Amino acid sequence: MLQTNDETNSGTTLDLPIDDAGDSWQDLLSITADPPERRTKCEFCKRPQVVCWCSSLPNPPLDIASSIVILQHPAEEKRTLRTALMLQLGLKPGKCVVYKGKKFPTPKNQAELEPILKSPNSLLLYPSKTSVPLESIRQEADQSGEGGPFTLVLIDGTWPQAKAMYASSPMLHNMRQVKLIAVGTSDYIIRTQPTEGCLSTLETAAQSLAVLENRPELRTLLVQPLHTLCKYQLDNGAVEHQSKEFRIKNNQYPKQIGKRLNRLLNYSNICRSEIQEADTGNGNEDHLNEIQNYATSVANS
After folding, report:
1. What separation in angstroms does the CA of 246 have from each of 192, 253, 258, 294?
2. Inter-CA distances, 301 with 71, 98, 159, Å
3. 141, 147 in Cβ contact below 8 A?
4. Nearest residue to 245 via CA among 200, 185, 293, 295
5. Residue 264: which of 223, 236, 297 has the closest Cα?
6. Contacts of 5 (CB under 8 A, 6+ apart)
7. Which of 6, 181, 187, 223 is the most interior residue, by most CB within 10 Å?
8. Which pairs from 20-27 meet CB under 8 Å and 24+ separation?
9. How far is the CA of 270 from the CAs of 246, 260, 273, in angstroms?
10. The pTM is what?
11. What's the rounded Cα separation, in Å, for the pair 182 and 244?
12. pLDDT tens digits, residue range 52-101?
């Protein structure tokens, strides 16, 4: 007789005959696991149909004169709540192109991407020392009657990823570099933003297109899928997130403020000051130099 010990709370043992033990194992081995039911996915956004946001996309897709090029860090593709695809589907096919990598151009896309990055009508959205307000580019084009249509190049990744991508891509350093000034507050309320002025890729592109195309309605139309996504998440247990800047100001931030976040907060405050100066017409060279210095410190953080 084969004895198997099954220690229980009462300290008793269970004795099974050899034949019974063998039959029990055979029964267990013969059980087949039912495959998990796969939820039907949308062929466009690739999300389960119950959480598809395609019904909120502009219909038909928006036709614009400008173009968007997104340089996307490979890690972004793994994020479930990424917004770049919303932008691609919201615009007419070919108006938004995504290139993946950690430095650009790569041998794989050099023939296609290099002419874009070298074009005088291509603008890199990046807070460098030489970046100028995007609004001024539009004003110059309107006054001169020259320039445009523009290609706006965005770096898609976390700030450390974007900084590394920029540093390893010398061709980006020679581009005309721009920044958004009046950005407002992000509608991506289910994700924590560093400051009140930080936007998602979709919102950044939508706001930039509204400026370049002189069509304010573009921002509203393009971010509708983001509103749908956030509403579904909130209806199913997600909570609304305040920015780190908001939590710090209201003594709700539980961690020590790091150097990079501190620089971002200072840069955000200076940008708001720049908006006020522009509105009142009291801008001065010292103030602009201060903004450039902070932009450089953020880029190098």
Report:
1. 10, 9, 16, 20
2. 20, 26, 10
3. yes
4. 185
5. 297
6. 13, 14
7. 223
8. none
9. 16, 15, 5
10. 0.67
11. 19
12. 999 999 999 999 999 999 999 999 877 766 789 999 999 999 999 999 99
Exposure string of 239-275, with b = 16+ CB inside 10 Å and e = fewer, is eeebbbbbebeeeebeeeeeeebebbbebbebbbebe
Q: For the chain, which ranges sit under pLDDT 70?
A: 1-38, 80-81, 182-198, 238-301
Beta carbons of 242 and 195 less than 8 angstroms apart: no
Question: Please, which residues have CB within 8 angstroms of residue 193's CB and are 6 or more apart in sequence?
Answer: 186, 199, 241, 243, 244, 245
Long-range residue pairs from 155-160, CB within 8 A, at least 24 positions apart, any chain: 155/71, 155/73, 155/124, 155/125, 155/126, 156/70, 156/71, 156/72, 156/73, 156/76, 156/84, 156/98, 156/201, 157/72, 157/73, 157/75, 157/76, 158/73, 158/75, 159/194, 159/260, 159/264
- State CA 166 to chain mean position distance: 16
Question: Which residues, in sequence order, are CB contacts of 222 under 8 Å at separation 6+?
Answer: 58, 62, 86, 87, 90, 91, 202, 205, 206, 209
CA distances from 17 to 1, 4, 5, 27, 29 (A): 6, 9, 13, 15, 19
Tokens representing residue 40 in the block: 């039907």
